[in-house]
Write a structure and sequence with these properties.
The protein is mainly beta and 293 residues long. The protein has 3 domains: 41-73, no CATH class; 75-179, no CATH class; 195-290, Jelly Rolls. The protein is built from 2 helices and 21 strands.
């Protein structure tokens, strides 16, 4: 009888000690097994320990910050900086979470209530004042940061650099702010327009998107011709046309579609003529003509 009792106990042992675990994800059953295996995913890790005192196994998840970005690294959309202290020592607080420290590469939209006519700085969330410079990282804004006009600023590790969007003008000798790019003017050392050289034919078409300067040379075998523009251009766009007459005989050039001129052009053998046009977005208007060049 003792032997029979021992055998019954051994047969019942798996029933007593083996407990299946029902696993659910989001309230939906996944399966029921005697063991639960935690497998690390992309950027997520689990560290587990046998907690004998609590009669349990404790697992702690963690993540790889090189794969899963943190709030500070992403910086989300919390980069709106509004300074309302009435000075060029701009101060502001980010809307949701305070900035702990400046990091190279950070960008902010700075909206100030005072124009920076010379030098200025910004202090975000009391992380410390940082000088603001133009995009070169060296020059003071001097009017490039206008009150009430938002500007992107970029931290390069030393200073905040303006990223454009405001005036590039400076301050006059009397202290007034120049308009500069505020009025969409541009100062440059040199501007060279692209030139399209067009084969001469009975009908010459100016490809207005190919450049702003067009040139053709007449041919005695073709004779007189008509010049047209492929499009009416963009309002305010300028265009120049150079017509070189061959050496044999004068050629008369008429003007067709999209061109409004003072009339046909009659050339002189071996001489050139130039015409300047401006577009209203629909047609090109002749504004100047020079002949016998």
């Amino acid at each position: 009888m003792k032997f029979v009792f021992v055998m019954l106990c051994l047969a019942a042992a798996p029933t007593v000690y083996a407990q299946n675990i029902a696993v659910q994800v989001g309230g939906r059953p996944v399966g029921t097994r005697g063991a639960l295996n935690l497998e690390s995913g992309n950027g997520i890790f689990e560290t587990c320990r046998d907690d004998g005192a609590g009669n349990r196994v404790t697992c702690t998840p963690s993540f790889n910050s090189a794969v899963v970005a943190t709030h500070e690294s992403v910086h989300n959309n919390e980069n709106y900086c509004v300074s309302g202290n009435g000075t060029t020592l701009y101060t502001c607080k980010l809307p949701n979470k305070a900035l702990s420290a400046y990091q190279p590469g950070m960008t902010f939209v700075l909206l100030a209530d005072a124009t920076c006519t010379a030098g200025c700085s910004v202090n975000i969330d009391s992380a410390g004042p940082v000088t603001i410079k133009k995009s070169d990282g060296l020059s003071d804004p001097r009017g490039a940061l206008i009150a009430g006009q938002p500007q992107w600023v970029f931290y390069d590790g030393k200073v905040f650099r303006l990223m454009g969007g405001g005036t590039s003008g400076g301050v006059t000798a009397g202290g007034a702010t120049e308009a500069g790019d505020l009025q969409r003017d541009l100062t440059a050392r040199r501007f060279i327009a692209a030139m399209e050289t067009i084969p001469y034919a009975k009908l010459v078409t100016l490809e207005t998107t190919a450049g702003d300067v067009h040139k053709t040379t007449t041919s005695n075998g073709i004779g007189n011709a008509t010049v047209r523009a492929a499009t009416g251009g963009i309002a305010g766009q300028h265009m120049w046309l150079i017509i070189v007459n061959d050496q044999l005989s004068p050629k008369t050039i008429s003007f067709g579609e999209h061109l409004r001129t003072t009339g046909p052009l009659t050339g002189s053998p071996g001489k050139a003529a130039t015409l300047q046009f401006i577009s209203d977005g629909t047609v090109w208007y002749e504004v100047a003509r020079s002949t016998n060049l």
